[in-house]
Design brief:
Layout lengths: L8 H13 L2 H15 L4 H9 L6 E2 L8 E5 L4 E3 L2 E4 L6 H7 L4 H7 L13 E4 L2 E3 L8 E4 L4 E6 L4 E8 L2 E2 L8 E10 L3 E2 L2 H9 L7 E2 L10 E5 L5 E3 L10 E3 L3 E2 L2 H10 L5 E5 L3 E6 L2 E6 L7 H19 L5 H10 L5 E2 L15 E3 L19 E8 L2 H12 L7 E6 L2 E9 L2 H15 L4 E4 L1
Parallel strand pairs: 1-22, 4-22, 7-18, 10-16, 15-17
Antiparallel strand pairs: 2-9, 3-6, 4-5, 7-8, 8-9, 11-14, 11-18, 12-13, 14-15, 19-20, 20-21, 23-25, 23-26, 24-25
Helix pairs in contact: 1-2, 4-5
């Protein structure tokens, strides 16, 4: 059971009863009083609060578990779903990082929501529930299809599980599957550039040195765990918006804050198993759940045959029919989080448990800052667009490059200019323009205010 606020429940209940027993005109003012007594966020979240119906609870973001769970021996499902209302300036990558989710799961769970310029006030689902991969629960297990890592610790009836989203290899350079182990660990590693990657960058006009030292330009980040399979690592990143994407050269990439925890809690020789399971079946409290992800290329056929047989076996052993219409729907939609496929006792479709409501934090962790526009500084004009939303989208994409490039939209009439900067000198602005060209194929124009 998730804890409620850090305040005494007795005082909360007194005011809550006052709200319910008061005449309707007085409820608004009592509700405001309750918010101040509990220390809830202020005006920025007031509208979201008033749009939610009582009774409580609505949880602070820092009380929602996203990484560490305990699972019973016979259970396969971790966590629970949550929901949050977006604020102006949010992006789905920022929400994903704050709650240690990959952008793949956040976007799949919220189809139709703009990735970079979602509408303020939109209520989105946080898919903080996961089915464990169908493997022995030992060491580190990485499910490529779910783009998620699971770190198991302990034995017996209850098992501690830490789980993190990951970025994985592209279709051209896929992450290898199979059994491995952690051969060594390195804090602040040097990246020795493989010849194939060096050649790719050379073709783009971006020659790389033979070795990249620790620092903001190092794509390995601050922590690296080297796998026994040569040239493959589990590491951090200077491109956090890529977590939940097929964007690496075969390595496993984590948010910097997640890989730091994994690094600290993973000894050398820890076994690692990498699997590709787009379809997952699990049970919790006697309910059967199915989780589906878009399969990589043609990799889903064999996995689905195995899952289908498992579902038939569960149905046979339990003597209760599963909702096969719901099974088909889950597979087709592939929303990336567990959905119940058991039938209710009366034979009707079983409804998903309502997500818990989460207050929007004052600041999303890792959200790129937008420096104030200043004079006597260098800027790069990345683009001039007629549509304001398109300009906002491009500015958000630029801010989420790695390392981040500050960007803003300046509007004059029906023209919306996307500017990168400010920079203290022409050389820094020139370097930013080069990155915009290489990463986004934008021909930036340098100017000084």
């Amino acid at each position: 059971m998730l804890p409620f606020f850090r305040y005494k429940l007795h005082g909360y209940m007194i005011i809550y009863r006052m709200i319910n027993r008061s005449p309707m005109p007085n409820r608004f003012y009592l509700t405001i009083l309750l918010m101040f007594i509990l220390g809830l966020p202020g005006c920025a979240n007031m509208q979201g609060f008033m749009n939610e119906s009582l009774p409580f609870p609505v949880y602070p973001a820092d009380q929602i578990e996203r990484n560490n769970f305990v699972v019973e021996k016979d259970d396969d499902v971790l966590g629970r779903l949550a929901a949050i209302r977006l604020q102006n300036g949010d992006t789905l990558p920022d929400i994903a990082r704050h709650f240690s989710l990959g952008i793949n799961t956040v976007s799949s769970a919220n189809p139709g929501i703009d990735l970079w310029v979602p509408e303020a006030g939109e209520r989105i689902l946080l898919p903080l529930s996961f089915i464990l991969p169908d493997t022995p629960r030992k060491g580190i297990v990485i499910n490529l299809a779910a783009m998620r890592l699971f770190h198991f610790n302990g034995n017996g009836e209850r098992l501690a599980v830490a789980t993190y989203p990951v970025g994985v290899g592209t279709s051209e350079r896929p992450t290898p599957m199979g059994k491995m182990y952690i051969s060594r660990k390195k804090f602040r590693p040097t990246w020795y550039v493989p010849a194939s990657i060096a050649e790719d960058h050379r073709k783009k006009g971006d020659p790389l040195p033979r070795a990249v030292p620790p620092g903001p330009l190092n794509p390995l980040g601050e922590h690296a765990l080297y796998l026994s399979r040569s040239t493959y690592l589990i590491h951090g990143t200077n491109k956090p918006a890529s977590i939940g994407l097929r964007a690496t050269n075969g390595c496993i990439r984590l948010y910097p804050e997640d890989v730091e925890r994994l690094f600290e809690n993973t000894p050398v020789k820890t076994p690692v198993k990498i699997v590709n399971q787009p379809y997952l079946v699990g049970q919790r409290d006697g309910i059967v759940y199915l989780e589906a992800h878009p399969p990589f290329e043609k990799s889903g056929t064999a996995n689905w045959k195995k899952i289908f047989a498992k579902l038939k076996n569960i149905e046979k052993k339990s003597g209760s029919a599963l909702d096969w219409k719901k099974v088909k729907q889950v597979v087709l939609e592939a929303r990336g989080f567990p959905l119940p496929i058991s039938k209710s006792p009366d034979g009707s479709e079983m409804q998903m448990a309502k997500p818990i409501k989460v207050w929007h934090p004052h600041k999303l962790y890792g959200q790129p800052e937008i420096p104030e526009f200043t004079t006597d500084a260098w800027y790069v004009l990345a683009a001039t667009l007629r549509d304001k939303v398109d300009a906002q989208r491009l500015a958000a994409i630029i801010r989420h490059q790695g390392p981040s490039i500050p960007a803003r939209v300046l509007t004059k009439g029906d023209r919306h200019r996307v500017l990168a900067g400010p920079y203290n000198n022409k050389r820094a602005a020139k370097d930013a323009a080069k990155r915009l060209k290489i990463d986004l194929e934008l021909d930036g124009v340098l100017f000084k205010t």
